[in-house]
Amino acid sequence: ADPAEITVKAGETGDFGKLTFEAAGTYEYTITEEDGKLKGYTYDTEPKTVTITVEDDNKGNLTAKVEGGEGFEADTNTQTITNTYEAEGEITFEGAKVLEGRDLEDSDIFTFTVKEGSTVVATGTNDDGTGKACGTITFGTISYVLNKEKDETGDHTYTITEDSITIEGVSIDGASKTVVVTVTDNGDGTLKAEIKSGSDKIEFTNTYETGSADVTLHAAKAVEGKDDSTAEFKFTLAPVTTGAPVADPAEITVKAGETGDFGKLTFEAPGTYEYTITEEDGKLKGYIYDTEPKTV
């Protein structure tokens, strides 16, 4: 045939040169695909045998009958060569774990779930790989394929949520994060996966909150040298530490030999708080007042 080598595009048909037979007989040919080494393609390089039987009708005419094996169409004398194209790709989300209210502790490990629809496709954790918590969330890889059975190109919508936690004082970040990934075929056996919408670094923020602590301070009045329960003495409770809660009442009057209560102090945050309790000089005759502030 001339030409005996042809180039055919995918899905099309190419013609070899015409074969002219001058004598009856059986003629065998092979049609072989060259390995073009295009990435992603599997070539069918196994030669396909085509047999042409030429007969003499004894009337001065030759007739040709063409036969082939699998994939040969006798009506059109066409041998079909089938190739396989496959492509793969993947994406791995990045994430950040933020804890407000205190620093992350080694045991503050959170887990996360990535779903496409109702299907779990990946999970994540802020475990640094040694069993300790860190501020980076590591997600599993999501893979995509394109082959004759499955075509995962196109848009994929994912929802990422934080799993339930049992860390005392820490609230869960209940907001789901949505990320849309577009997958396209590069034509070389690879798929490109890139974020179409949503953050390229998924952040989950938790808050650490403590309960309040209540303290009630008291002032007791002791009088030495005289027993007079009618005398009254005034005391003031004053915060020394900036931002410390203030008692209400912060000033009380206590009779000799009795105890008085300042207003309740409610603490909303851990820390060390300093107060002074000071007796006012009531200038009652015969009494010596202890006006030196007492630190609590």
Largest sheet: spatial strand order:
15-18-9-12-11-10-14-16-17
Net shape: rod-shaped
Q: What is the number of E strands?
A: 26
Order of helices and strands: EEEEEEEEEEEEEEEEEEEEEEEEEE
Rounded to the nearest angstrom, the distance between the terminal CA atoms is: 109 Å
Rg over CA atoms, rounded to whole Å, is 44 Å
Major β-sheet annotation: 9 strands, mixed
Q: How large is the count of helical segments? A: 0
> Uncertain segments of ≥5 residues (pLDDT<50)?
none
> Mean pLDDT score, rounded?
94
Class by helix and strand content?
Answer: mainly beta
| Share in β-strands | over 45%
Helix content estimate: under 10%
Task: Describe the fold and architecture.
With 296 residues, the protein is mostly beta strands. Helices cover 0% and strands 46% of the residues. It is built from no helices and 26 strands. The strands form eight sheets. It has a nine-stranded mixed beta sheet with strand order 15-18-9-12-11-10-14-16-17, with no helix packed on it. The protein has a four-stranded antiparallel beta sheet with strand order 22-21-25-26, with no helix packed on it. Strand 3 and strand 4 form a beta hairpin. The chain starts with 24 loop residues before the first strand and ends with a strand. The mean pLDDT is 94.
